[in-house]
């Protein structure tokens, strides 16, 4: 049972464009939603994260939009750059449990020059 | 250290053999996690340590998998009687404590079972 569903599986964007990746969840006990960026041969690195009491969080070119009623959240990358080409994972965690992260299947982003 | 380190970076073994994978968390981090990442998939949780004890081992797929953290720092993931299906990247992550959100991942160990 996949607890966090991520789409699209792959995404191609032109330099300067906006990249949008979406995630949906079912477990209403989730209370922390991070996005991780992973380059080939490297471990995932935290990009940005949000809690459900906030509808939007922005850090530089990266923005998370969160819709608690729809149980959806998305990552927006503004002014996408070739260096942003990587695989992006959304995740969710339930506090008070084991603190384990439940990951989506990932989105491979390619930003063309 | 500056980050989470894992050794070896690559491990090739034969079906049926025993392997050990090591994780050195960030100094001072009390929480440690093991995840497994298959090709084209997101990381999947295996086990979580708070200090020396395994607080949650619900993600271990079967009793061939075992992990220890005897002194509350370095952890070793042990796989007995390896199978081809065990081939994956094994990731370790640490966080300051269980109340801290951010998990910092190591580069992983790529395990190949022939």
Can you give a write-up of this model?
The complex is a heterodimer of chains A (113) and B (114). In chain A, 0% of the residues lie in helices and 54% in strands. Chain A is built from no helices and eleven strands. In chain A, strands 2, 4, 5, 9, 10 and 11 form a six-stranded mixed sheet that branches. Chain A has a five-stranded antiparallel sheet with strand order 1-3-8-7-6, with no helix packed on it. In chain A, a hairpin with a 2-residue loop joins strand 6 and strand 7. Chain A is globular, with a radius of gyration of 14 Å. In chain B, the strands form two sheets. In chain B, strands 2, 4, 5, 6, 9, 10 and 11 form a seven-stranded mixed sheet that branches. A four-stranded antiparallel sheet of chain B has the order 1-3-8-7, with no helix packed on it.
Mean pLDDT of chain A: 94
Going by helix content, strand content and strand pairing, the class of chain B is mainly beta
Q: Could you tell me the strand content of chain A as a percent range?
A: over 45%
Q: Based on Cα principal axes, name the global outline of chain B.
A: globular
**Structural class of the secondary structure composition of chain A?**
mainly beta
Biggest sheet architecture of chain A: 6 strands, mixed
- Which series of helices and strands of chain A comes N to C? EEEEEEEEEEE
In total, the number of strands of chain B is 11
Distance, first to last CA of chain A: 38 Å
Helix fraction of chain B by DSSP (H/I, runs of at least 4): under 10%
Largest interface: A-B, 24 and 27 residues
* Beta-strand content of chain B: over 45%
Q: Quickly count the helices of chain A.
A: 0
What's the total count of β strands of chain A? Answer: 11
User: Helicity range of the residues of chain A?
Assistant: under 10%
Low-confidence stretches of chain B: none
Order of helices and strands of chain B: EEEEEEEEEEE
């Amino acid at each position: 049972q996949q607890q966090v569903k991520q789409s699209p599986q792959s995404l191609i964007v032109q330099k300067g464009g906006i990249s949008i990746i979406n995630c949906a969840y079912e477990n209403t006990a989730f209370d922390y939603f991070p996005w991780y960026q992973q380059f080939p041969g490297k471990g995932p690195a935290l990009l940005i994260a949000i809690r459900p009491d906030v509808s939007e969080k922005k850090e530089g070119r990266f923005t998370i939009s969160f819709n608690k009623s729809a149980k959806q959240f998305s990552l927006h990358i503004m002014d996408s750059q070739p260096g942003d080409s990587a695989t992006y994972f959304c995740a969710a965690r339930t506090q008070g449990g084991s603190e384990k992260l439940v990951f989506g299947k990932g989105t491979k982003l390619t930003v063309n020059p | 250290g500056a980050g989470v380190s894992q050794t070896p970076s690559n491990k090739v073994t034969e079906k049926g053999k025993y392997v050990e994978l090591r994780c050195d968390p960030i100094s001072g981090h009390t929480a440690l996690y093991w995840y497994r990442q298959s090709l084209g998939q997101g990381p999947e949780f295996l086990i979580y340590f708070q200090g020396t004890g395994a607080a949650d081992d619900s993600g271990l797929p079967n009793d061939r998998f075992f992990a220890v953290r005897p002194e509350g720092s370095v952890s070793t993931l042990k796989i007995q009687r390896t199978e081809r299906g065990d081939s994956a990247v094994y990731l370790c992550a640490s966080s300051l404590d269980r109340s801290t959100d951010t998990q910092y991942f190591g580069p992983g160990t790529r395990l190949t079972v022939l």
